[in-house]
Amino acid sequence: MDTTEGRLFEVKIGKGRAWKWLYAGSMLLGLLLIWVYRASHVPEAGEKGRWAWTAVFAAELWFGFYWFLTLSVRWNPIYRFTYKDRLSHRYEEKLPGVDIFICTADPIIEPPSIVINTVLSVMAYDYPSEKLNVYLSDDGCSIFTFYALLEALQFAKSWIPFCKKFNIQPMSPSLFFSKSTVPVHDSSFSDWTTMEKLYKDMESRIDAAMKLGDISKEIKAKHEGFSEWSSNISSKDHQAIVKLRVSEKISNGPIILTIDCDMYANNAGSVRDALCFFMDEKQGHEYAFVQFPQTYKNTTKNDLYASSLKIIQKVDFPGLDGQGGPLYTGSCCFHRRDCLKGRKYSELSNVELKGERPQILEASSRILEEKTKDLATCSYEESTQWGKEIGLKYGCPVEDVITGFVIQCRGWKSVYFCPKREAFLGLAPTTLSQTLVQHKRWSEGDLQIFLSKYCPFLYGFRRTKLGLQMGYSIYCLWAVNSIPTIIYAVIPSICLLNEISLFPNVFSYWFIPFAYVISLSYIVSLWESLIHGETLKAWWNEKRMWLYKRTTSYLFAFVDAILKMLGINESAFVITPKVVDEDTSKRYEKEIMEFGSTSLMFMILSIVAMLNLFCLVGGIGVVIVDGAGALGSLFMQLLLCGSLVLINFPIFEASFFRKDKGCIPISTTLSSVAVVIIAYFIPVF
Ligand SMILES: O=c1ccn([C@@H]2O[C@H](COP(=O)(O)OP(=O)(O)O[C@H]3O[C@H](CO)[C@@H](O)[C@H](O)[C@H]3O)[C@@H](O)[C@H]2O)c(=O)[nH]1
C-alpha cells in the first residue's frame, strides 16, 4: 500500500436515513395523538383521577421531549478508521511527546497493585519510549502507592522489553498473566515463566506491605522519597501532586492522555491511533481531544448492572461525533495540551504539535523538583485562571464533561474513536449500590451544568451546533427523568387498584398510538442492543437498571442539584471502589443482585416493587369481579403494572427467598410493606 498519500484517517457515515425518517415521523405522529387524547379526555373537575391524569400527561409530555433530544445522537452517526502505517511512514521521526496522567485517590478502595498495572500498561505502548512520560497523581498521598510505584519501575525494566519483544497485549501484567498461558515447548516459554514469577513476587511484596500496614525500614532506606512521609502527613494535608503545569516543566508533551487508575491500556497502538487524528494534514488542526470508549473487563455475561453502557458507547457517541464531537468523559482521552490550557480555535492557525521538551541537566533536576512542588500546590492557583479557563474546570462532580464542553465552545471539535481491539479495559462497579452512587454523581454533575451558565442551549448557542447542544442535554437532563418515571411507575398502578382508568380502552382507536409508541420504542431498543452484541437478558437487565437509576440515583441527584443551586448543599465526590470482598464478588459473578444494606435508595426500590405487586394482585381481583369491560379499560395499566412486577423479580427474591448477605434486610422489606399499606388508604384524586 502507498503510505505517502492519503489521509491518516477515514470517516464512514451511518446508513439508513430513510428508515430514520420513517421512525422519527411515525413516533412523532404517535406522540402527538397521545397528547391530543390526553388533552381532550381530562376528567371533569370533581371526577376521580383528574390529578392522576394531569400528572401522567405531564410525564408523557416530558418523555416526548426527551425522546426528541435523543434523536440528535441517532441522526448522523459517524465511524472512524485510522491508518497508522501512513502515520509512521510520514512522521516517525517527528512524533510528538505524550504525557500520560493517571490519577488515584485511595489505596484501600483503589489498591496500589491495580494502580501500577495501569502504569505498566501505558509504559508499554508501541511508541518511542523517550517521548512517553507517565505521571501518577495520588490524591490519597499513600506511602504504599509510592512504594508500589518504585517496585513497578524496577519491574518495568524487564516487562517493557518483554512486551516489545513478544508484542504483548494486554500490556497490564496482571491481566496478561490471568488470560494467557504459553505451551511448554514454545521458544518463549522460559522468558514467559521468568516474567510471570517476577510479577507474582512483586505483587506479593506489595500486598504484604499493605497487609502489614507499614513499609519496612530496609525498604525506606532505599529511596529518599520515603522521607516525605516522615512529617505529619495525611490525605488532606500532603505534598503537592502532579498537575498539568508541573508536567510542562518536566516533559511538556504537546499531547496528554488522562486515565483513571484502574484503566489498563489494552491496545499498544492507541497513541498512534490518536495521533492519526491530531496529525492529519487536512483536519488535524480542528481537533482538541480524541475520546476512546471506556470499556470494562469485569462485566458479567448479561451485564447485570448495565455498566458496559453499550448503547452510549456504540450509538450515542458515534452520533455525537457526527454533531461536532463526543463529550470528554475523564478517562481514556487524548488531549492537545494547548486546548486544555485554554487556547481558542482559529481556522487560520495551523496548530503544530511542537512542544519543546525542557532541557534538564542532572544538577538542575533537584532544583526543578523543589520548584515543581510549589507549582503543584492548590494555593498556587489562587487568583489565577487555573480551574476556570486553564486546565480542568473545578467545582463540578463531572469536571470532565464541563471541561470538554467549554473546549468545544471555543471552536474546537473532538473525535470519538472505537478501535476493533479495545483501547482500554477498566473495572466497572460490582454492586448495585456502587452503580447507583456513581450514577448519582454523574447525573447530579450533569444537571449542575444544565442549571449553570454553561447550560448547553445557552452557552453553546452560536458556539456549537444545535444537534450537539441537544446531545449534551440528553445527559444533563438525566436527573430530571426521575420525576416522570416515578409518576409512571406509581400512579397508573395505584389507579388500577382504585379502578380508575388512565388509558384508552383496548377496543378504542385511541389505543393504537399508545400501543404503537410503546412497542416501537421497545423494539428499537431491543434491536440496538442485539446488533451491538448484547444478549436478550442483558437488554432486560439494562431495562431494570434504567428503572432503578431513574427512581433512585437520578432522584437524589435532582434534589441535591437543586439544593446546591439554592446554596443549601455542597456536592462531594464519592470515589467508586475498585474491590469488594470475596462473597460479594462471587455473587456478582453469578449475576445475583447485591443489596445487603439498609440504604434509602434500596428502600425506594423496595417500595416501588411492593406497591406494584400489591396493585397487580388488587387489579387482577378487580378484573375477575368486573369482567371483560374492566379488562378493556384497565388493560394498559395491568400491562404496565405487570411489567414492573416482572422486572422487579430480583427485589422479591432478595426480600423473601434469599438468605445470603446480599439480600434485602428484613427491616427494609417490612418498612416498604408498611408504606404500601398506608398508601392504600390515601384517596386518589
Ligand atoms: O478526589 C479524587 C477523586 C477521584 N480521583 C480519581 O479519579 C478517577 C475517577 O474516579 P472514580 O471514583 O473511579 O469515578 P468513576 O465514576 O469510575 O469515573 C468516571 O467518572 C468521573 C467523573 O465523575 C471521571 O472523572 C472519570 O474519569 C470517569 O471514568 C479515579 O482514578 C480516582 O482515583 C482523584 O484522583 N481524586
TrEMBL record:
GO CC field: endomembrane system; membrane
Subcellular location, principal: membrane
Membrane-spanning segments: 21-39, 51-71, 472-494, 506-527, 600-624, 630-651, 663-682
Binding site for UDP-alpha-D-glucose: E110, D139
Keyword NAD carried by entry: no
Record-linked InterPro entries: Cellulose_synth, Nucleotide-diphossugar_trans
Gene3D superfamilies hit by this protein: Spore Coat Polysaccharide Biosynthesis Protein SpsA, Chain A
Subcellular location(s) of the protein: Endomembrane system
GO terms for biological process, alphabetical: cell wall organization; cellulose biosynthetic process; plant-type cell wall organization or biogenesis
Membrane disposition: Multi-pass membrane protein
Signal peptide: none
Entry protein name: Cellulose synthase-like protein E6
Organism in which the protein naturally occurs: Dendrobium catenatum
Lineage: Eukaryota, Viridiplantae, Streptophyta, Embryophyta, Tracheophyta
